Amino acid sequence: MFQSFDVKSDPSQGPERVARLRQWLEKERLTGFLVPRADEHQGEYVAACSERLQWLTGFTGSAGIALVLRDKAYVFVDGRYTLQARHQTDPSTFAIESLIDNPPEKWLAANLAKGGRIGFDPWLHTISEAKKLRAAVAERSGELVAAGPNPIDVLWSDRPAPPLEPVEIQPEEYAGRLAKDKLADMAEAIARAGATHAVLTDPSSVAWAFNIRGHDVPHTPLALGFAVLAADGRHRLFMDERKFSITVKAYLTQLADLFAPDELEGAIVGLAKSGASIGLDPSLAAEKLRLLVEENGGRFLPLADPARLPRAVKNPAEIAGARAAHRRDGAAVSKFLAWLDRQQPGTIDEIRAARSLEGFRQATGEELQMPLRDISFDTISGAGPNGAIIHYRVTTKTTRKLGAGELYLVDSGAQYQDGTTDITRTVAIGAPTAEMRRRATLVLKGMIGISMLRFPPGTRGADIDAVARQALWKAGLDYQHGTGHGVGSYLSVHEGPQRISKTGTEKLLAGMILSNEPGCYKEGAYGIRMENLVLVTEAEVPEGGDIAVYGFETLTLAPFDRRLVEPELLARDDLDWLNAYHARVLREVGPLVDGETRKWLEAATAPIG
After folding, report:
1. Which of 260, 292, 311 is the last residue of a domain?
2. In a domain, 79, yes or no
């Protein structure tokens, strides 16, 4: 199994650990300290040694930040994690705040005592975050104080060691381009921007640029490290060489000079003192790097990560790999859904369902000669009220049976060497209520709306987010998460900068892969989410039209539960799309499954209406 269902947090530890942190605050004469869910790379997925927020609070979500003051403490989370944070933290110690509506900088600007001193670890906050925090504290005549070492690291006596998992080379047949060519393009981009160097702080960018993969963080094939790219082509890679085989080391030495991670600070200082202009992405790079540059005479140049956009726009080999991965994954998911349909209500629980799904993926990968390398995130396996917890993680403590009359939400994904998948299906266990059917159809209608959409060049995710919500809004419903996130190529299942959300400002370009996942959640009752991955396709002028338009190709291939579809709530175009999609699922996935699943699939994809 690639996932564990053990309980990973203990809220009862929070009070004692906060008390110890407050002793440190008093010693350092600080008003408070910020503990983000972040590592030095600002990634969503972090190694066990960087789970500082979880250690302090018990909260295990992938986004959040704690603010511990002398007399109060807060955990800021977004709408995906509101319920989870309430369950996982000690309510007598932590109050829950909105990371979106009232983020720490806004809270501090309104509530910090005059002259307050807030400590932070500059390695764990981006340049943009630190700028906002500094301005907020200044409004209260206060000070943002860079602390070192991080007090959590000092207090955390049994903190795990940094990971040392082996690095692998991603073959050109899947990467699509040689690393030397990617690096040459980025060197040119750095020179055009007026910089002498740029620091790649995102391990996904390092992995993409050098065509390498690793296993340092859960479910995302990353090798933690930094790269300093140079306009003159003399690149440097900062990564623990204990991760390299002889072959990998020989490969990497042809692309860059190799250094240990703890040599990065000295290298930045040396470049700064030589007068270098160093590009750092303000939304990704740690504030510590900016301080090292400017405090040593260098020039900090705000510069978007030069690998981020090229990484988001998939090349033909990556697109072919994504299509193949989704056909294979669709076969595995269809086998699982057929198996699930044969189970009697109340006989299996959330953990057994998640284990079975992973088992089908492993078996199918072996049958089709592309092994499952990992899952792309911990499976969200939520029955009944647990499905209403948007990023629910089932444990041995929380698992419940899939009972009659309930909805079961399963959000899962896989990592294959040729592609990354992410799919959500909501299934009726027994007979659904009329309310469940109606709301599920409205969610499906929003997903289909995005799927059928055509849009002109220059369109951003924020421009189309409302399409997925329109039917729900009309019914007085909504969901507290984005409609879609970018997805990598055997990389992170959550990849920027592209996204479909109210804050999605990046233009959608042909070759980008995004999720399409509207939802509807009724606290204490059920959750509904429908998710496919889509590929932005080339712009073309429709017959009789005047402008070129982009579209979406749906990559995910698995049926939706017909028991949750109210045909009269769907327009003719919606029904046509759904029936055509189901026919395609049968056509492409049917040949990859066993006879029993094929028979089930034929019924599951039969025309509706």
Report:
1. 311
2. yes
Mean pLDDT in residue range 181-192:
98
Choose among 168, 163, 164: nearest CA to 248. Answer: 168
Over its C-alpha atoms, the chain yields an Rg (Å, rounded) of 24
Same domain, yes or no: 64 and 175 = no
Tell me, what CATH number does 483's domain have?
A: 3.90.230.10
* CA atoms of 471 and 600, how far apart (whole Å): 30
* pLDDT for 43 beyond 90: no
Q: Which residues are within 8 A (CB) of 288 and not within 5 positions of it... i.e. 6 or more apart?
A: 40, 122, 123, 146
Q: Are residues 459 and 323 in the same domain?
A: yes
- d(CA 507, CA 350) in angstroms, rounded, equals 38
Q: Assess if residue 2 is contained within a domain.
A: no
Amino acid at 300: F
pLDDT, tens digit, 9 for 90 and up, residues 116-147: 999 999 999 999 999 999 999 999 999 999 99
8 Å CB contact between 162 and 132: no
How many Cβ atoms are within 10 Å of 19's Cβ, its own excluded? 11
DSSP-derived letter for residue 144 is E
Give per-residue burial for 520-550: e unless 16+ CB within 10 Å, then b. Answer: bbbeeebbbbbbbbbbbeebeeeeeeeeebb
- Whether 28 and 122 map to the same domain: the answer is yes
| Domain shared by 345 and 450, yes or no | yes
Residue at a domain's end among 311, 327, 362 = 311
Same domain, 343 and 438: yes
Lowest mean pLDDT among 80-84, 125-129, 503-507, 542-546: 80-84
Rounded to whole angstroms, what are the CA distances from 64 to 5, 446, 602? 22, 28, 44
The predicted pLDDT at position 52 comes to: 97
Structure tokens at 212: 């390498």
- SS3 for 423? strand
Q: What would the pLDDT profile of 215-251 be if each residue is shown by its tens digit?
A: 999 999 999 999 999 999 999 999 999 999 999 999 9
CATH code: domain of residue 260: 3.40.350.10
The predicted-structure confidence for 531-562, as pLDDT tens digits, reads as follows: 999 999 999 999 999 999 999 999 999 999 99
Closest listed residue to residue 368, CA positions, set 329, 316, 413: 329
**Residue 482, domain member (yes or no):** yes
SS3 category, 164 = coil
pTM above 0.70, yes or no: yes
Q: What is the 3-state secondary structure (H, E, C) of 455-497?
A: ECCCCEHHHHHHHHHHHHHHCCCCCCCCCEEECCCCCCCCEEE
> What is the residue range of 275's domain?
168-311
Classify 167 in phi/psi space as left (phi over 0), alpha (psi -120 to 50) or beta: beta
Token digits for 176?
A: 């699509």
